[in-house]
Write the structure tokens for this entry.
Amino acid sequence: MVNLFVHPDITFTHLSNAEFAALKGKMVFDTFTPPPSLPAFGERIQIGTTSDNQRCFLFEYHRHQKPVVSFLILSAGSSVFYQYSDMASPQSVLSLVRGNITKFCLQEQGHFCLHASAICIDDQVVLFIGTKGAGKSTLATYFHLRGHAIWCDDYSLLHQKDHSFFAAQGETSLKINPDVAAALSIPQAQLQRVFDLPEDWTATPEADALTQKYYFKQVTSQTAGLPMKVAAVFFVNQRMPSPPNLITGIAGKDALSVLMHEMLLPGVNAKEYLRIYFQSAMTLLETVPSYNIFAPDDIRRIHEVYDSIIETISISRHV
């Protein structure tokens, strides 16, 4: 059985294959995402109803079109039953729980979650939001190498209080790609594989993009406690050869467009959560300073971006 990272608001229960199949058989699934398109690895999500007419969800992770890890999410995200085959390692199951499964459950419970990393700067945190390949993980990793603790990665759970937003402490290891580790010269001894792949795994470029990630955590995280205030939100844009400005302001409508686009599962999340997300995102952008980051594509200049962010935070605190 997997020693799960368990969020206090979510109960995880491991079942045998037979127990899981029996529980699944009591539910009716009528809406689903397409089957995985990757030949080696993929995710499939089905929406269904229980015998008492409650929404439920089935997350399946496939290898060679066969489910090897499955999660049934019930009770509005507060209860998760899971099973996994011999083809999946406990480490791989844990990596799925610490990411998509926990985030989705919190969303179902009505919490405001962003697909973002939070890095500590003094007694506050900054959020990094970016599309795939923009360099969000590279930037967060560089901050961590400069001594800034990781407050949360992959998703940030936010709540509003007294005209401010606060981020709860979450996953304190960054997920980074091998090229980021190589570019920033991180020793292999400081890295841990996110997915513990079987010996007969067939590598492909498409599958590698999902599976060849590492956990990285160098600095001891700050003591868990009360959520930390969000000082700023930085939208990491695609890198370019010679950006005229490293940091610029971002219009509210443009920032909102990014936040709406990055929502985890449009069409699957409950309508109530979509309403909460939209209203919370609007309020966040009205309350917290937001900026664009245009980083050079030369990794040797990442210190310039770091210095610009630190300067921007310092200035905003004195305005």
